[in-house]
Amino acid sequence: MWWDGLSRQPAMREHLRFMQDLIKLRRTRPGLTGRHAVPYQEHNNDRLLVTLRGTGDGADDIVVVVSLNESVLCDYAIGFPHPGTWHQLLNADDYEVDPARRADGIRATVEVNGPAMHTMPASARIVIPANGVLIFGRKPR
Fold it and tell me: Is 129 exposed, middle or buried (0-12, 13-18, 19+ CB in 10 A)?
């Protein structure tokens, strides 16, 4: 880490804040520290990977969406392990310094009420930021 850069470059400060928030989330959510990890949705053309993390009993299921796509993916169907309201726990776009590069339409909650998809019993359509990470849980932060 270039510590002097924190005082000079906003992007460095946001990167540090992102890492701190990600570490805090991992420490407070058992689903992110459990051994249960199942990548269940992969799209090479869209450069997207979706993984279910959890403790194995469904108590703290976490859905992690990682996009290496240079473009925002709008109205993108993602499978979820349970229907109902899911809360956004982390959105990498929140740490983007340039507001023009942030994706529009990303919601703090997602209503999962779509059909079964990618071995999951439910689905929802979401906006996925370019080169981004979204983390969802059934319980809010």
Answer: buried
Higher pLDDT, 94 or 134: 134
The two tokens of residue 112 are 């999962």
Question: With bands split at pLDDT 50, 70 and 90, how would you rate the model's confidence at 34?
Answer: confident
**Do the beta carbons of residue 68 and residue 132 sit within 8 Å?**
no
Cα(48)–Cα(72) distance, integer angstroms: 11
Q: Name residues whose C-beta falls within 8 Å of residue 98's C-beta, 6 or more positions apart in sequence.
A: none
Structure-model confidence comparison of residues 17 and 113, the more confident one: 113
Q: How far apart are CA 28 and CA 73, in angstroms?
A: 29
Q: How many residues does the chain have?
A: 141
Instruction: Classify the C-alpha dihedral 117-81-123-115 as positive or negative.
Output: positive
